[in-house]
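Why this split exists: single-chain examples teach little about how molecules sit against one another. For that reason, every record in the complexes split bundles all components of an assembly together and asks for one structure covering all of them. Below is a record exactly as it appears in the raw files.
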Amino acid sequence: MNFRKDLSLPNGTPVDTSSPASSSSLLNRLQLDDDLDVETRDLFVTVDDPKKHVCTMETYITYRVTTKTTRAEFDLPEYSVRRRYQDFDWLRNKLEESQPTHLIPPLPEKFVVKGVVDRFSEEFVETRRKALDKFLKRITDHPVLSFNEHFNVFLTAKDLNAYKKQGMALLSKMGESVKYVTGGYKLRSRPLEFAAIGDYLDTFSLKLGTIDRIAQRIIKEQLEYLVELREYGPVYSTWGGLEVELSEPLEGVSACIGNCCTALEELSEDMTEDFLPVLREYILYAESMKNVLKKRDQVQAEYEAKLEAVALKKEDRPKVPTDVEKCQDRVECFNADLKADMERWQNNKRQDFRQLLMGMADKNIQYYEKGPVVYAGNFGVEEGYQVKGTRETRKSRELSSNIVAANFFPGCISSVFNKHK
Amino acid sequence: MESAEPEPSGSRPEEEEEDEEEDEDEEEDGALLPPEQPAAAMEDCLAKKMEITVSEAEKRTGRNAMNIQETYTAYLIETRAVESQSEGQCAPVESLWRRYSEFELLRNYLSVTYPHIVVPPLPEKRADFVWHKLSADNMDPDFVERRRIGLENFLLRVASHPVLCQDKIFYSFLTQEGGWKEMVNETGFQLKADSRLKALNATFRVKNPDKRFTELKHYSDELQSVISHLLRVRARVADRLYGVYKVHGNYGRVFSEWSAIEKEMGDGLQSAGHHMDVYAASIDDILEEEEHYADQLKEYLFYAEALRAVCRKHELMQYDLEMAAQDLTSKKQQCEELATGTVRTFSLKGMTSKLFGQETPEQREAKIKVLEEQIQEGEEQLKSKNLEGRDFVKSAWADIERFKEQKNHDLKEALISYAVMQISMCKKGIQVWTNAKECFSKM
């Protein structure tokens, strides 16, 4: 269905379709269900297959962007192009310019400190790939952004650079964005609902920032714990070398500690690669959303200023001038778009965080699940074996000169040790 | 004259009758073994007949020997005779207070009196191998508590030892409040103690010690080194693990704050935060249990010192023997030279007699007589020293074998309990994170 042809509100009022802003807001109002069902989804985008390119001037990574679609806006049902980070960055800027009333998803951080982070390490590239994939998927799921022509070109053009250069020259496209360049108007007061959103985003960013710091600290502590464990395990082995009867249990403990080290390393890596980046993305998201709120304030401020100017002129005009009318229109569109996007954002955020935190819990559960398996395997200890309190342990020493191993340990343990007698 | 040789200490000890032999008391070097008593059978061990506990610890202030006020901790020792079950009666509990220095006195007495026994060690005097949460302060209640347990353990070990449990001084330590110190000092055990310098000297100069003791000494050195290392690293590991758990507590707070601005997500976040608090708090119990494990290892760290003490004693006795034999040999040689007139070895006497003329036959006769007396004495001494040496090796080795089995049993148990602790810790972790996951799923 092509909404752009027949445009009228449900009450019959014709709608001005000359500006893209109105048509997009109309789309929002007419679309009953913002969240696209999987069945009705007609656009699928994936980012994968990172490849390193070594050129004379620079070395960089490209990613394969695959598109599958039935939309009429696309000439072909399938596309496969290669894009680098720069291209994603360009796309995002273009979206911000051309869809200023919408919340544009964030990109992973642009700059990485050379020497600290290896831009070409597998882990870094994979983390980035996931973030870029998420970026495109969020756009794909957006009922307005997914129809953006820059997005279309990004997904389909063989030579994106040529299009980029072309875009710079054309000023007609600039016409729209000029309208939203701030005229330096100051808003007196933010409407309550947007003030609430602003406050929410402030607190939200703050809390995420704290969580990020906590997660980093935990990883740091875990790695320091790991360092000590790596020294700890081998000492048991050394001791085992001194002993005869005790060498097996001592080697057993050493092996178990070694296993713990491996599991811990995995946990820390997972948290670094999967947990922290998503957290940081949301912090960036909140930042860009706050900027959109500010832009909205600007649009409202401009309208109110112009309205005031007209009122002060005290001209006896029955009709409000068209440019003030357009300002009012812009404010209403902006507000509507923003509210709709906020609702969508809240839903997605809730799902994303549910998944993220459950993932964190899962990783920890997996880490702890490895322990009992390894220890039980090495010591033949049954589940539910009760640790004796210290008093009982000491009383057992009264019979120290009379080893009665079988009386103290459940059958399976004594069998482990009896075979060495 | 037959040449006297020290009997090689590596010879297998013969089967000995378990008689009561009266050894002569000697005042010089080498503490003698106390009168031979048959080792107590298992059933007769004091530990079986008497319940012993160190039940309390109390801070006291008093005046010490130099009339200076000091603060110390006193420990309450409670004992009760074990009645047979059929009687159904409970004997009354007797109790008395002792301080650490008295325990030390007891142990010193036992070490000197029973040098062939691996005497159980006392818990450490000062807190060592601490990690940041524990303080190194002797007055710290945790330290005092662990010391109380260690002292009780010491008493139980002595009471279950087949030889030591029969000692009267030990029994009095447990039962006689007043005058015990005087009683110990009256035994004169301090005089029997070997000087450190002598022991060191013997270690370096002994020529033919029993190989088993040399190996054992080497083993105890290595054991001490490896357990020290283990305890040091363990303390660091505990420190780090504490940090990991405690930082998670911060999640609790921030989730709670975050939940305040959320609508649907709020409840899930809040309850998950509670589980993070539980997780952070769980480390305290985990590490306390581990502290007991560390104490078990520490006991054997100190036991290594006791083992070494027995080896040192053997070296001292062996050296003593070698010196006595050497002395005897040289005296016999002197005697021979005087009798035959030949000078085999250079001696000042020989030189002077060459220069200033030989001594008169009467003088020579007198000298020979003195020497012959000394030689006879020497031979008797050598014989008894040899016997002593063999006795010592036999009894010491028997106790060492007993000790080895005890060590293997105890440490095996400690390692298993360590494994069980680790499993339990993992299970707690799984539980907490599973609970948190469920809360997250409800977000």
